[in-house]
Protein: pancreatic elastase II
Amino acid sequence: MTALVVLAFLVAGAYGCGRPTFPPALSRVVAGEDARPHSWPWQISLQSDSSGRWRHVCGGTLISADWVLTAAHCIDVRDNYRVELGKHSLKTSEEGSTARMAHTIIPHENYNILLSRNDIALIKLSSPVTFSDTLMSACVPDRGVVLPHGAPCYVTGWGRLSTSGPPADFLQQALLPVVGRDTCSQPDWWSVLATDKMVCAGGDGVAAGCNGDSGGPLNCQNPDGSWDVHGVVSFGSGEGCDVLQKPTVFTQVSSYVDWIHTAMTNN
Structure:
């Protein structure tokens, strides 16, 4: 058993967090685009059996070998869930991909569905995954970090390609610059709905905010090249994918570092 633990540690250490073997092809296009295959290897597909078969319902982020971060509003206690990992296309079988049942689901105890407060949840996988070139974790930011206005972050997911269009087959990415809280909380933006535990990004009326479906990550690169998951997709405008002055709103992960650590330690 000790040998297996040491091996797992060495494998995790070899890959680290937030350092994809196949770096994303970053661009400044104003709409979403197909991501480079496996360039966001922490992106997961959360699937439920509510329709009688497994169906993609939300995105999420692998943050350790057996824990996934997603949004609380993605969870319905009546359903069973599984997590697909290492995927680029949701419609084809891919080498290196794997699936795990959700063993334990922990929505934030103070989640408020009406105001989207504390819209964050953790999922413990039925068994740990082995990190590889196509499957690894994102880094979690330090406690209390607040992104500056204009920070270039990327949202990823298999969401709809347009407001009423079909869901994506291949993983999508879209540049969504951060909107500072002073701007996002203005009356003609998100006003009081945008709290200090949220991150706003996009909202220029052009970028394709549909690409990051609920629960998925807001990926922001550190100076050393690694990637942190700074946000969990929470809500946007009901009028469309990316409405002017209505940026996508994310749960700010840095505000929940202690909660994440406690939940993972106790479960």
Summary: Residues 2-15 form the longest helix (14 residues). Helices lie at 2-15, 181-184, 257-266.
